[in-house]
């Protein structure tokens, strides 16, 4: 009997959308977006994250100004309850994805005998 792996992946995607963890991220993101101050801080944070990531990937130097701006935003984020709750929800969702990744990769690990080393 053959299994269509893509059908299974689509069922998993649907289950993820229905999970408590996903629903918590969705609710917290809505809370951030419904608060102008939280929304602005979060947008600035995402922009600086992308800028730093782009610089790192291109080998460009990250300046002290970049670091200072990131630290300033980190301080604002710590004091913004909406964003803090969103980040906690994202961490829980990230753990679920890590767990699923481990499960998905288990057949290959078994095949290559990584458990037998």
UniProtKB/TrEMBL annotation:
UniProt xrefs under SUPFAM superfamilies: YheA/YmcA-like
Residues annotated as signal peptide: none
Record keywords, A-Z: Coiled coil
Gene3D superfamilies tied to this protein: YheA/YmcA-like
Alphabetical list of HAMAP family matching this protein: UPF0342 (MF_01526)
Family: Belongs to the UPF0342 family.
Listed name of the protein: UPF0342 protein ERX27_10010
Highest classification ranks of the organism: Bacteria, Bacillati, Bacillota, Bacilli, Bacillales
């Amino acid at each position: 009997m053959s299994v269509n792996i893509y059908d299974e992946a689509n069922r998993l995607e649907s289950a993820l959308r229905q999970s408590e963890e996903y629903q918590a991220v969705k609710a917290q993101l809505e809370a951030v977006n419904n608060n102008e101050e939280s929304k602005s801080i979060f947008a600035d944070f995402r922009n600086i994250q992308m800028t730093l990531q782009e610089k790192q990937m291109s080998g460009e130097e990250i300046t002290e100004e970049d670091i200072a701006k990131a630290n300033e935003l980190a301080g604002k984020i710590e004091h913004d309850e909406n964003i803090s709750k969103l980040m906690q929800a994202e961490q829980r969702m990230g753990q679920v994805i890590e767990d699923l990744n481990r499960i998905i990769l288990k057949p290959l690990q078994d095949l290559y005998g990584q458990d037998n080393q």
